[in-house]
Write a structure and sequence with these properties.
By secondary structure, the chain is of the alpha+beta class. It is built from eight helices and ten strands. It has a six-stranded antiparallel β-sheet, with helices on one face.
């Protein structure tokens, strides 16, 4: 019995010591993580070349035959610097489809809806954006309502959109995914309570392939719609 008690105490102390020790993952710097991610993706890591993107980086790589880029951006916050990651896949499609908070985007939605609803070639044939029920608490805008409607009807695409939905601290829904001029973009947030987030990506680098797989579903559908 004494030996058992000693074993339990030693095991408990060992566990505490391991938990208290600094994880190797936490010691990896931002630059080291990006170097490791570039190697994992078999891509090229470079500083961001656009003006105004100081201390920002991007990794260009190919995945499943698609041209992809991961951007790691440093931005100015209210007090400290904040960081965000953006995973992007470019398509030849020109669809713009955005999902934002309803409360702050009513004017923008009105402008885009009027521009996209009325065709200069066929005014009499108007198409309204049919927002699915699971996106009703978001402000959804599209420059091509007909194409957006077909995208929403795809069950696999719907599954991806549902997975990327978040609710912020004020109780407003938002989506981490959007499409701008045919570029499918997924944001990795600095806040750990949103999905996806940078902390989870740094802890499990291979998880980026799951997100890429989800994005490719949308990319394939966009390519299919473009050929119709």
């Amino acid at each position: 019995m004494t030996a058992l008690v000693v074993f339990i105490v030693v095991a408990a102390l060992t566990g505490i010591a391991l938990l208290s020790a600094k994880s190797p993952l936490r010691q990896v710097t931002r630059e080291q993580f990006l170097q490791q991610l570039a190697k994992f993706l078999e891509g090229q890591l470079n500083p961001h070349s656009q003006e105004g993107y100081e201390n920002c980086f991007k990794i260009t790589f190919a995945y499943d035959g698609e041209d992809c880029v991961f951007e790691d951006l440093e931005q100015k916050g209210f007090k400290d610097k904040v960081y965000a990651g953006y995973l992007k896949i470019k398509t030849p499609n020109k669809l713009t489809l955005t999902f934002t908070e309803k409360k702050h985007s009513l004017k923008i939605r009105s402008d885009i809806f009027l521009a996209s609803e009325i065709s200069t070639q066929a005014v009499e044939k108007r198409v309204r954006l049919q927002v699915p029920e699971y996106l009703k608490d978001l402000n959804v805008t599209a420059n091509d309502p007909a194409m957006a409607n077909e995208l929403f009807e795809d069950k696999k695409v719907a599954g991806v959109l549902k997975k990327m939905k978040n609710v912020n601290d004020r109780g407003y829904a938002f989506l981490s995914l959007g499409i701008i001029d045919g570029i499918v973009t997924l944001e990795f947030h600095e806040q750990n309570n949103f999905k996806p987030n940078l902390a989870s990506l740094r802890a499990d680098m291979a998880s980026i392939e799951d997100y890429l797989g989800d994005m490719v579903i949308i990319v394939r559908k966009l390519n299919q719609l473009l050929k119709q």
